[in-house]
User: What shape does this take?
Amino acid sequence: MKTIAFILFILFNSFASMAQTPVLERYGNLSYGEIRGAYYKDTRNFLGQFEGTWLYSNNGTILKIVLKKKEMFHENGNIRNFYTDYIVGEYQYIKNGIEMQNTLSNINIDYQNISDYNIEGNLQKRGNKIPTLCPECQPGEKKLMVYYTEPSRRNVEGLNAQMVFRWFTENGITKLKMWFYSTSGSYGFTRDGQPTDIVSYLLPYGEYVLTKQ
Assistant: This one.
């Protein structure tokens, strides 16, 4: 009887917890982040199309990116207290046969801080300027914007970059077009006040087309 009572207690608390967590659509919701305990879910699976392993290879440069949908991540800090879905990612960058970066082993780590992933985000971006013109983009087409960092550059004050992913198919092959660009440059010192001559990331800014593996 004690076992049955314990199971019923767990079920009751689980249902009560779910009842206190309203599920709301993530995108197009003007109340995003305002309702405490709410789950702003990607109900239309916008993020799902970007999941997988993607590969760019050109003239000795290889870029492999693994993207994974992280569901019901708890945003908890300062005034934030809600749940939402993210895309998180890690990568391998090889230049002329030399591995410059490899963070792929991080992809299955359950980080409690979303920015601990080297690629993360869940923002939709529309329009045909990202930041350069995208003539092939359709009116109202939704693309994914994420934040990017590198382990060896995390402590450089002011150095920030973003990626925008556009999902498409070409001759039956699934691809991502990626725009990688700077949003702010190095201030010339690290977060602990030490001078640095690092002014950019190891991965060059620009446009990449990656094929799904």
User: Anything to note?
Assistant: The radius of gyration is 20 Å. The chain has one domain: 44-212.
